[in-house]
Amino acid sequence: MSALGAAEPASYYTEVRPLLQVHCSGCHQPANKLSGLDITTYEGILKGGAKHGSALVKGTPDNSPLVSLVTGKLQPRMPMGGAELAPEAVDLLTRWVREGAEDDTPAEAKAPQAPTEPPVYAQAPTITGLAFSPDGGMLAVGGFKEILLHKADGSNIEGRLLGRSDKIHSIHFSADGKRLVAIGGTPARFGELQVWDLESQELIRSVTSTIDTLFAGDLSQDGKWAVFGAADKTVRMVDLETGEEVYKAGHHEDWVLQVVFGIDGKRIVSVSRDRAAKLADAATGAFQENVNFLRDKLYAVARHPRRDYVLVGGEDRVPYLYTMDRPRALKIADDSTLVRKFEEQDGKIFALAFSPDGSLAAVGGVSGEVPVYDTETGERVASCRGHDGGIFVIAFHPDGKRLATGGFDGVVRIFDASSGEEVQSFIPVPIQQAKSADDAQKAG
Ligand code: HEC
Known about the structure:
The protein is mainly β. It folds into two domains: 92 residues, no CATH class; 297 residues, Methylamine Dehydrogenase, Chain H, CATH 2.130.10.10.
């Protein structure tokens, strides 16, 4: 800033980009390019749309559709059908273009790359992704920008899969154990689905989707498809062979936090903060019906391994078991699909899991305790305790005798499912105490 106090030049990265993200990206993003315009990247704005070409003429706001469409000089005025931008916002866009419309995105924020060195941890990161391999020998745990492959008893780290997503929200092994699919992203930046070859420990596919992190999903039994929920209220399906997004379905009105396939892979159930568990056609995403009676926000869903039952839970602390098939043709708003309610928990529910034969159901959430229930009777058979803070993920071992839990405290705990006794616990990442300022900087 000069001594005379001239204003700082307008910044694309810190000012213009967030403005466009809020007011414009709903209609002009890669998956929804109205008029051919992707406004979520600088390159996309330069390229422009089908009608006017480049949205920018650097230095001349009057000739830039990006500006003249929000001032109303060109019609139809943007944001299309929405409230006019505030005068300060119009002024910001105008100034930025007049000053040359430069891209000041910092190098480290551009197309984030996977780290080349494993991250250095000063403390254990929150655990949101956890899965046992089908043979039970391996436990995959999501860290920060990586997935750690542990021996199932936590005795050794056998691999570190470094990726560009800060956080992994769900991890899935293919049935043959050869591939691992991870779903996550970096909040407010991008969502990503990663496909790893486990033998070579190489990333064979990275699919970027939406401009925010993706939430939990599922793989089809044949390993061909992945479905997941997103912060843009959509459910999306990706073809894992080609990496293409097959569809995005927008039936929900709020974040979609988890999606599961039905037994035969022909249907999916998604749960959302909008309170609904929605049944849809897996191949097309076409909505079929609400599975549940709407009560409160839903954060988790698990499918029974042997039948088309789903266990859902969330804000109101009660796990509900529903059948995906409405038994009688009754009104949509009834609760005739409810099979069983389980005991009310001590806090919100964030994680649900069935044992491999479906006989047991485990529930985790804010309270940190993980009760295990007999699915048939709804009776509590065990209580797994020890976590200091909320539970975000639960995974049963394929032998059905043990379950692993993780969450806020960053510790993986393995419990005996029938007694609730802790069998093992370990911090899944190597922790390094910062010895010098230099190290501390690296850790930061
Ligand atoms: C509700 C959807 C919607 C929103 C939100 C929206 N647009 Fe548009 N935009 C459209 C549609 C539809 C067109 C094509 C209009 C036409 O020419 O008939 C369009 C066209 C454009 C074009 C011209 C593209 C071309 O074909 O050359 C620009 C530039 C543009 N919009 C910028 C913006 C900006 C900037 C914002 C946010 C301030 C915004 N839009 C918000 C729907 C939207």
